[in-house]
Amino acid sequence: MKYLITGAAGFLGVNLALRLLREGHEVIGLDNYHSGTEKNISLLKKWEKFKFIKHDVINAYDIPCDVVCNLACPASPPHYQKDPIYTLKISVLGTLHALENAERHKALLLHASTSEIYGDPLVHPQTESYLGNVNTTGPRACYDEGKRAAETLCADFTRLGRVDARLVRIFNTYGPFMRDDDGRVVTNFIIQSMNNTPITIYGKGQQTRSFCFVDDLIEGFIRVLALPSNQGPINLGNPNEFTMLELAAEVQRLIGSNQPFSFQPMPIDDPRQRQPDITKAKKFLQGWEPKIQLSEGLSKTIEYFKNENK
Ligand SMILES: NC(=O)c1ccc[n+]([C@@H]2O[C@H](COP(=O)([O-])OP(=O)(O)OC[C@H]3O[C@@H](n4cnc5c(N)ncnc54)[C@H](O)[C@@H]3O)[C@@H](O)[C@H]2O)c1
Q1: Among residues 1, 95, 266, 308, which is most buried (max CB within 10 A)?
Q2: Nearest CA to ligand 1 atom 7
């Protein structure tokens, strides 16, 4: 099979590409390095069946393939808030162009949506039927609303029979190939502890997140693509929930750092609680559920960053 991955230079893109290349597929990576790295693409270029095209997805493209994996979009708040109008364009126009390319080549499409479409949820844990609580004008809206509009495009192309667009709603995922400066909580905590500096905690650290190790997520992608028919949006994430204080303590334990925490004000619109209900994924994806729990996943991620910094 020939897979086109938009956003191949990013964290999930490179992990997905490696999985597919290991299975013997052809992979074309598309990226403009907006938030991804040339280093990730250099690694992929070692594979004979990998081809890279530098392209900005806000412009249309025509690339023959069997499957389009639409991942291009900055995912961490500092990256997507840096140029919010561009972020919105990437989500909407990038998804439109991915769908048009899939339609032209009769390809299946996987769209990387997000738990952010639930906003600051009023229902807990979040099932796919929950419609969300998003502030349309806040600093996170460029990402959240862009991703909501992208889902609408995917649903309409599917309803019209133009493309079979599979929607996965990804909850916080972490692991090797994250950027050490991406500003996401797991990398922040690991890098601060490795540098033996205080971990930054927003608010009182009681807000919770559930963290999925990347290999589990990628397995979910593969199973969604293998489904015989489109089942609508599917949550993928790890339902085990931790407070930021618990995460910080676990990172410090694994690294052996004992700096005091540095408490800072909560960012605007930061969700207080996030936890996927994965009943639907379990039902349709042959019992899929995360296998790698927090300590093991964090250890693998810490190992990656230690090797990177050698
Ligand atoms: N990692 C997570 O926890 C998570 C959670 C929910 C959703 N997602 C979604 O998964 C996808 C991948 O996320 P990630 O964590 O790998 O993020 P990332 O920032 O590491 O990767 C995104 C990639 O897209 C590329 N890109 C951005 N704008 C582009 C453009 N205009 N043209 C071409 N390439 C462009 C970037 O350069 C980068 O390589 C995103 O769509 C994100 O919204 C990720």
Answers
A1: 95
A2: 114
- Strands 67-70 and 108-114, sheet pairing: parallel
Q: Is there a catalytic annotation at residue 143?
A: yes
Helix axes 244-255, 185-194, angle to 10 degrees: 40
pLDDT at 273: 78
Residues of the chain short of pLDDT 50, as ranges, are none
Q: Which residues on neighbouring strands pair with residue 51, listed in sequence order?
A: 28
CA of 231 relative to ligand 1 center, distance in Å: 23
Task: Read off the amino acid at residue 113.
Answer: S
Q: Which atom of ligand 1 is nearest to the CA of 40?
A: 39
- The alpha carbon of 71 and the centre of ligand 1 are apart by a number of angstroms equal to 5
Which residue's alpha carbon is at the smallest distance from atom 25 of ligand 1?
A: 7
Report how far ligand 1's centroid is from the alpha carbon of 259 (Å): 32
Q: Please report the domains of the chain, with CATH numbers, ordered by start residue.
A: 2-175+212-239+275-291 (3.40.50.720)
Strand segments, DSSP code E, in the chain are 2-6, 26-31, 50-54, 67-70, 108-114, 165-170, 173-174, 200-202, 208-210, 212-213, 234-236, 241-243, 262-264
What pLDDT shows up at residue 39? 97
Whether 75 is in the pocket of ligand 1, judged by its Cβ within 6 Å, is: yes
pLDDT at 61: 98
| Helix (DSSP H) and strand (DSSP E) numbers for the chain | 10, 13
Q: What is the pLDDT of residue 271?
A: 74
Is residue 93 lining ligand 1, measured as CB closer than 6 Å?
Answer: no
